[in-house]
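stage 2 :: seqdesign
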C-alpha cells in the first residue's frame, strides 16, 4: 500500500504555558488502496491534524541507557465532506529512517471511548475554555463537532495524550485512520517530525538552593520547595511537556528569581494580586477543595492569560527561544519591557499570584512569546545537581535538585 502524497503547512507556536497560536499542520493525503474494494478516487475531504503541528520533541527518561519519552498531545481526524467516514481504528507508528520501529493500534472500541470523551469535553465547553491545550482553534475549528467514530460533514474524532517510551532514535511519527468512506475501504495518513535535541541556548536554573521538581517532562511536572503540597495541573502545558517545569518554595521563604540566560524583556505583569484564599482551609475536604479550585481556575481562564500566569517576566533569548517565569510576587518585578538582562540577574521574586495555591514558580521555555498558545522546548539546566541520580541527567518529575 502507498500513500501518494502528504503536504504539511506548519504554523508557529510554543512557550510559557502561554504563547503564540500554534499552527496546525494541514495534511492532504491520497487514499491508500489496501483492499480490493478500495475507492481509487483521492479524498481531500478527510484529514488528520496534530497539535502541536510543526514537530514533537522527545525527552530523556534514562540518559545512560538512551531511553526517551514522547508525548503526542492531541490529534484529530476531521471530515470536511458530505460523505460519511466510518473510522474502524487508528494506528500510530514511530519511524526511524523510513522503517516502522514502534506501533500502537487503537481499535474500534478505543475509538468509541475517545469519541465519547471528546464529545463530553466539547459539551462542557472545555475545548473553548482551555483553547491553548488545542492550539487555539487550529485543531478543532468552532464549527466542527467532536464526535465519532462515524464522522459526517464537519465532525471530528479527537485523540488525546498518547505517550511513548523507547530506546534509541525516532525521527517521524505517523498516524493512520482506517475505515470506510461511503461503504468502501479507505485509509488516510499524516506524519509529524520527531526532534531529539535540547534548546540551542545554554540556561541556568532560575532559582538557587534545594528544590523539588513536582512536574517535569514527560508527564507534566512542577517544582516544589520542601514540605509544600504540589500544585501541578495537567492543563499547564499541553503542547510539549518537555518544556514545562515548576518551582515551589516554602511559604515562609521569598526567593529571588534569576534570568536563565542573556535576553531582552518582551512582556511582563507586575500588579496581579496573590489570593491567600486559594489555600486549602483546615475544615475543607479534598473533594470540596478540588471543586473550589476548578471553579477558580475557570474564572481566571475567562479573564485571559495574565489572570492565569499572574505576575510574570518573558525573555527573548534569541534563536526563537523564549523563557517565561510566572506567579511572581506583586510589585517584585525589577525589569521593564525592552531591558537587556544578563544570565543570573535578579528579575523578580517567587510568589503565588495568578492560578496558584501556594508560593511556587512556573517556568517554561518555548518557541514564541505568547503565554498560552505555544510549543515547549526541552532544555537541560547547566548548573543543577540531582543528589540521588547515578549520573548527570535532565530533571525528571519528583527529583530533588540543588541549583549552584
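stage 2 :: out
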Amino acid at each position: 500500500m502507498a500513500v501518494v502524497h502528504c503536504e504539511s503547512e506548519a504554523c508557529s507556536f510554543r512557550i510559557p504555558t502561554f504563547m503564540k497560536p500554534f499552527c496546525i499542520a494541514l495534511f492532504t493525503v491520497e487514499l491508500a488502496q489496501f483492499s480490493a474494494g478500495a475507492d481509487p478516487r483521492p479524498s481531500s475531504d478527510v484529514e488528520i491534524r496534530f497539535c502541536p503541528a510543526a514537530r514533537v520533541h522527545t525527552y530523556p527518561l534514562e540518559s545512560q541507557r538512551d531511553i526517551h519519552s514522547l508525548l503526542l498531545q492531541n490529534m484529530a481526524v476531521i471530515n470536511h465532506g458530505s460523505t460519511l467516514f466510518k473510522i474502524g481504528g487508528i494506528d500510530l507508528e514511530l519511524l526511524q529512517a523510513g522503517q516502522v520501529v514502534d506501533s500502537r493500534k487503537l481499535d474500534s472500541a478505543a475509538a468509541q471511548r475517545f469519541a465519547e470523551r471528546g464529545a463530553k469535553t466539547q459539551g462542557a465547553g472545555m475545548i473553548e475554555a482551555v483553547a491553548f491545550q488545542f492550539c487555539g482553534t487550529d485543531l478543532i475549528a468552532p464549527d466542527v463537532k467532536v464526535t465519532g467514530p462515524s464522522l459526517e460533514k464537519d465532525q471530528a474524532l479527537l485523540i488525546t495524550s498518547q505517550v511513548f517510551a523507547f530506546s534509541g532514535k525516532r525521527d517521524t511519527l505517523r498516524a493512520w485512520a482506517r475505515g470506510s468512506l461511503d461503504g468502501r475501504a479507505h485509509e488516510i495518513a499524516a506524519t509529524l517530525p520527531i526532534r531529539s535535541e535540547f534548546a540551542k541556548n545554554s540556561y541556568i536554573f532560575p532559582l538557587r538552593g534545594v528544590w523539588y521538581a513536582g512536574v517535569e517532562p514527560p508527564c507534566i511536572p512542577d517544582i516544589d520547595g520542601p514540605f509544600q503540597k504540589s500544585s501541578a495541573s495537567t492543563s499547564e502545558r499541553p503542547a510539549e511537556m518537555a518544556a514545562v517545569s515548576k518551582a515551589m518554595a516554602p511559604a515562609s521563604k521569598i526567593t529571588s528569581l534569576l534570568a536563565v540566560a542573556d535576553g531582552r524583556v518582551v512582556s511582563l505583569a507586575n500588579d496581579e494580586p496573590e489570593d491567600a484564599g486559594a489555600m486549602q482551609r483546615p475544615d475543607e475536604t479534598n473533594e470540596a477543595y478540588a471543586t473550589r479550585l476548578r471553579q477558580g481556575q475557570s474564572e481566571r481562564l475567562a479573564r485571559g492569560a495574565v489572570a492565569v500566569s499572574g505576575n510574570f517576566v518573558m525573555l527573548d533569548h534569541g534563536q526563537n527561544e523564549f523563557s517565561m517565569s510566572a506567579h511572581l510576587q506583586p510589585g517584585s518585578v525589577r525589569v521593564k519591557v525592552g531591558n537587556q538582562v544578563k544570565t543570573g540577574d535578579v528579575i523578580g521574586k517567587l510568589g503565588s499570584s495568578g492560578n496558584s495555591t501556594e508560593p511556587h514558580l512556573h517556568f517554561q521555555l518555548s518557541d514564541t512569546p505568547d503565554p498560552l498558545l505555544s510549543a515547549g522546548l526541552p532544555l537541560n539546566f547547566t548548573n543543577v545537581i540531582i543528589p540521588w541520580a547515578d549520573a548527570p541527567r535532565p530533571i525528571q518529575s519528583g527529583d530533588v535538585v540543588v541549583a549552584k
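stage 3 :: structure notes
- The chain has two domains: 6-195, 209-403.
- Residues 1-43, 218-252 have pLDDT under 50 and may be disordered.
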